[in-house]
Amino acid sequence: MKNFKRMMVLAIVLILNPIVTNAQETTIEFENADSAENLVRTYVNALQAADIAKMSATLDSGAMIYGLDGGLDSLTVAEHTIYYKKSTDSYKHVISGDLYLPVKVTDNWNEGEWVLAWGTNTITNKETENTIVIPFHIASLVANGKIIMMRYFYDTANIMKNTGWTLTPPKK
């Protein structure tokens, strides 16, 4: 059943995202698939539990995290720890609808063992009780039992709007 779910998710990903290279090969059947998936699940569950130490323990000491804090700039493990410490001090994170797909890529620039994760992070401000619903996607590159790179994708305009920012379109 687990492999069936993985194959269905991979089929959906391949249908919705055209392959842009001739050489890339991918598989969902590889030796470390389950352990890589469990590692990323541990990271996401630790966020929900506000266990920053456990989140950080899943990361390689040289890991780089991209796409957090409203930009494409990278965060080191130490900066990631500070970011989520501030976040969990102020907000409660509830993860729902999460789905994980381990994929091994060979013969391409993004070669490695990846875990793709999708879900919804419902964030509630502990002081005001205001809630923001944030659909997310995280692509995590795993090597030697640790996450060595993460790329976060989420709608920052949604967050800005729901935290009181006014988005003004450019003048014509």
Arithmetic mean of pLDDT: 87
The CATH topology label is Nuclear Transport Factor 2, Chain: A
For the sheet with most strands, the description reads: 7 strands, mixed
Strands of the widest sheet, in order across it, are 1-4-5-6-7-2-3
Q: What distance lies between the first and last C-alpha atoms, to the nearest angstrom?
A: 54 Å
Question: How many β-strand runs?
Answer: 7
Low-confidence stretches: none
Q: Percent helix among the residues? A: 25-40%
What's the CATH architecture name?
Roll
- Proportion in β-strands: 35-45%
Task: Report the CATH C-level class.
Answer: Alpha Beta
Globular, elongated, flat, extended or rod-shaped: what is the shape?
globular
Number of helices: 5
Helix-strand pattern:
HEHHEEHEEEEH
Structural domains: how many: 1
Radius of gyration based on Cα positions: 17 Å
What structural class do helix, strand and pairing data support?
alpha+beta
Descriptive notes:
- With 172 residues, this protein is an alpha+beta fold.
- 34% of the residues lie in helices and 38% in strands.
- The chain is built from 5 helices and 7 strands.
- The protein has a 7-stranded mixed sheet with strand order 1-4-5-6-7-2-3.
Summarize the structure.
The chain has 172 residues and is α+β, with helices and mostly antiparallel strands. Helices cover 34% and strands 38% of the residues.
Topology:
Blueprint: H1 2-16, E1 25-27, H2 33-48, H3 52-57, E2 59-66, E3 74-75, H4 77-90, E4 91-106, E5 112-125, E6 131-143, E7 146-154, H5 156-162
Parallel strand pairs: 2-7
Antiparallel strand pairs: 1-4, 2-3, 4-5, 5-6, 6-7
